[in-house]
Amino acid sequence: MANLPQLRSYQLDTVAEVRQAILDGHKRILVVIPTGGGKTTIGGFMVHGTVNKGGRALWLAHRKELVEQAHERIHQFGIKAGVMMAGHAPRRAHYVQVASIATLIRRDIPTARLVVVDEAHHSVSAGFLKVLYQYPDAIVIGLTATPYRLDGRGLGDVYTKLVAPVSIADLIAQGHLTPVRYFGTRKDLEPKMDEVKTVAGDYDAKAMFKQFDTRTLYDGIVDNYRRFANASRAIVFNVNVEHSLKVCAAFRAAGIAACHVDGETPRHEREQILKAFKAGQFEVLCNVNILTEGFDLPAIETVMLNRATKSKSLYLQMVGRGLRPAPGKSACTVIDQGGNVRHFGPVEHPEEHSLEAEAKSKKGGGATSAPPMKSCPQCERLDLLFVQQCPECGHVYNTGSTNNLEAAEFIELTDFLPKNVVVKGAKKPVPEHLKKNWLDMSKDELEEYAGIQGYRPGWVYMQLKRQQSQEGAMAA
Q1: Which helix (H) or strand (E) holds 342?
Q2: In the prediction, which pLDDT does 402 show?
Q3: Mean pLDDT of 78-91
Q4: Within 10 Å of residue 58's Cβ, how many Cβ atoms?
Q5: Is 53 helix (H, G, I), strand (E, B) or coil?
Q6: How far is Cα 90 from Cα 83, in angstroms, rounded to an integer?
Q7: Does residue 471 surpass a pLDDT of 90?
Q8: Is 162 within 8 Å of 446 (Cβ atoms)?
Q9: How far is CA 158 from the centre of its chain?
């Protein structure tokens, strides 16, 4: 028992909320935890509890990588699980089965008291509904970081209760995720996405490729990598295979080690490339939508959005690849070539989740209006409209005018949360001398603040790293 994964406090709170929901009569519960927050660990803990009580459990996922990831995590809880997926022999005797939905819909379903649905925003698709319909008496727990769909359909068709105990901002504040730095093109220089037609709720790939297939943008993505994230481990999300291959070639031509993978890359070759990337054998990994779910590498420091999307789910999944902390990593750098940050806002921006369908005006995977921003006339950094002083250079904004011109072609979109975020569970009110930006606090003040909020010691370390990073940037 001592070797079992240890849950963080918010993860234990999540389990407690789920158990209470079950006691209240709910049998289908959606759990929303940000990318990097440990959804698989939470699910594994609940599977462990079910097995300890003599029950059987089923874990559903729609991709091979997610099946393998869940199987490994369940094994860490001391449980032998069968895998129902092509290439795996049946192990029906095991109390837990981890199944690919594409395989399970063609086989007899296993008995289960608990059904866990990974990436549960897919729950309302035909395949998942066909399977879940056959478990009318089971407890169904859906796990997702992105409870949005491009078609605007609500997940209330499957779930009756939503549990969302923690936000990205909370996890950054507690040191479980890294702070985020944003860089993006000037709005007037962004690709003209209003000229691109929409297919199945998102931009048409062929039409979008025409907007991004320019020498200026190929040179620009390399230049921006060198300028804002040089030598960092970076993942690049591109429009299509041709686009990704051209981007990869542009990096290589500039002397930067890069590789490309896509859905058609042979399995063995793909595994070798990902293994080499994880080992740090090259800096830049180009891909086309295949590394948005189930690919976890904390060492990723930079996420390059070399495309646009109308899907908030996809946007959060892409940025989420760089949010996990790692030794020596002080922040995740997002280099946005497609206007996504302006469209959706920063991933830390507070939001309310719902099981209801999106209003027609909000279709697009849960997109909401992005917070209004302004550009600092001295350092060209973008801040939220209500910020009174630029945290980068100290410029005091004229509150009577917010129409600052953006002069640079590529500008920093950093620090969308200039005021400290109050996290749930504070032991007592924050005293007046601690009501200031964390970047301005001494180590003693950070430790005092962490004690009040109940943060782990790692949070203080992360804030000190942020301060060092900012001091270095100011001195450069």
Answers
A1: helix 340-344
A2: 38
A3: 88
A4: 26
A5: coil
A6: 7
A7: no
A8: no
A9: 23
* All CATH 3.40.50.300 domain ranges in the chain, comma separated: 9-167, 176-350+371-412
* DSSP-assigned states of every residue in 69-115: HHHHHHHHTT--EEEESTT----TTSSEEEEEHHHHTTSPPPP-SEE
Q: What is the pTM of this model?
A: 0.78
Closest C-alpha among 304, 4, 353, 351 to residue 184: 304
SS3 of residue 65 by DSSP: helix
Helices (runs of H) and strands (runs of E) counted in the chain: 14, 18
Q: Provide the angle, in degrees to the nearest 10, between the axes of the packed helices 215-229 and 241-253.
A: 60
Q: Report CA 113 to chain centroid distance, whole Å.
A: 30
User: Residue 461, class by beta-carbon neighbours within 10 Å (0-12 exposed, 13-18 middle, 19+ buried)?
Assistant: middle
- For the residues 60-81, what does the mean pLDDT come to? 92
Segment 377-397, tens digit of pLDDT: 554 455 666 667 765 557 787
Domain 9-167 CATH (choose: 3.10.590.10, 1.10.10.10, 3.40.50.300, 3.40.50.150): 3.40.50.300
| CA–CA separation, 7 and 177 (whole Å) | 16
Strand spans (E) along 155-197: 161-163, 180-185
pLDDT digit string (tens) for 160-201? Answer: 999 999 999 999 989 999 999 888 877 777 788 988 999 988
Per-residue pLDDT at 288: 92
Angle between helices 9-23 and 39-52 (to 10 degrees): 50
> What pLDDT does 261 receive?
94
Q: Which CATH superfamily is domain 176-350+371-412 in?
A: P-loop containing nucleotide triphosphate hydrolases (3.40.50.300)
- Using CB atoms within 10 Å of the CB of residue 457, give its burial: 0 to 12 exposed, 13 to 18 middle, 19+ buried: exposed
Average model confidence (pLDDT) for the chain?
Answer: 83
Joined tokens for residue 273: 């490339």
Cα–Cα distance list, 277 to 108, 289, 296 (Å):
39, 17, 12
Token pair listed for 157: 């068709």
Give the residue carrying structure tokens 């109050």: 422
| Residue carrying the six token digits 């059987």 | 56
